[in-house]
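Example 384, ligand flavin mononucleotide.
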Amino acid sequence: MALPALRIGHLLAKVPVIQGGMGVGISLSGLASAVANQGGIGVIAGAMIGMKEPDVAKDPLTANLRALRNEILKAREQSPKGIIGVNLMVALTTFSQMVRTSIENRIDIIFSGAGLPLDMPQHLLQVCEEKKEEIKTKLVPIVSSARAATVIAKKWASRFGYTPDAFVVEGPKAGGHLGFKPEEIQDPAHALEVLVPQVVDAVKPFEDKCGRAVPVIAAGGIYSGEDIRNFLALGASGVQMGTRFVATHECDADERFKQSYLSATEKDITIIKSPVGMPGRALENQFIHASRLGNKKPFKCVFQCVHTCEQEKTPYCIAQALINAMKGNLERGFAFCGVNVARVNQIVSVRELMESLQKEFDEAVSSFSRGVQNMQSFFGYGKK
Ligand SMILES: Cc1cc2nc3c(=O)[nH]c(=O)nc-3n(C[C@H](O)[C@H](O)[C@H](O)COP(=O)(O)O)c2cc1C
């Protein structure tokens, strides 16, 4: 059985798999266009996207906006018909300008978490008004609870008369920064399997009111086609995956970053207290170890990347650490990863990854139907 398509407004992804935005520089136009060309939704990460621009230290805003625009245009060129999105964290100091730049460049979809994106529709409405045309960019908040989904949907309705086009619900098994308190990460009450049906229920009244579907997309710890089947059965319309896409040829990170995934074991996975004020899941290394021991010194901030960074108190610059890691210099940084990183044992093409997900999905559906048939014949029902 083919994976069901994912519809978000006018956008129709043949495969219900979104490649999660991964900063800094892990998912740029290369990975995003490869995923889009395979029928999924490819996502460019906006965080510090201007890192390679010559003026990034002098004028980070201009550098980031220029690089964002270039990556969007490159991805569009490499995947003229695929669905391309950007991931913009609310905590970014350049958030509003990056949302506007993405809409002006007609990005298909914007995913936004790490805070509540309460103003996002305002930018869309303003750009449409200025350009005197209807731009169809879809706006998708990333949440970690049904409560957050409700708050956003209510605020958007009352302020802009706009209903979110979909929600991503990201659970505590995800890679990167996590929208949970450290003690919630292992708490079964916050498991993705619990959150997905809660968010599906929470969006129902808004769907009824606006008369269209608001798909819920599950993220965090989804690894196989069988996992996809399980989350679709819980009411999700699609999944967002990050870790698996790092181990692809097309991923934009340095080979050494990818290799760190291949050599990772369960005991290497750790939770850090990130300078941006959230916990994050990453691969333990000397850099993280030294920062825990207090062996890293406060620094002078050049990038001014996130509002939430308490620059005077933090032992290192998160932007610089992630830029170093993306370039393969893991002595001066670290790799974010999802809970399943130790299962990754080879680098494949995006096409191969998508094919294996399809095959596993198929097998999971067949074995589920066989199980149902066996039960029916055991109990003697389901037959005439
Ligand atoms: C290396 C890495 C970087 C990430 N960076 C971001 C980011 O910049 N913004 C964001 O919203 N999520 C980020 N994430 C989360 C992913 O988009 C995705 O939702 C999550 O990893 C899904 O869980 P999985 O890795 O278990 O599949 C990152 C994840 C990883 C592994």
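Summary: The mean pLDDT is 94.
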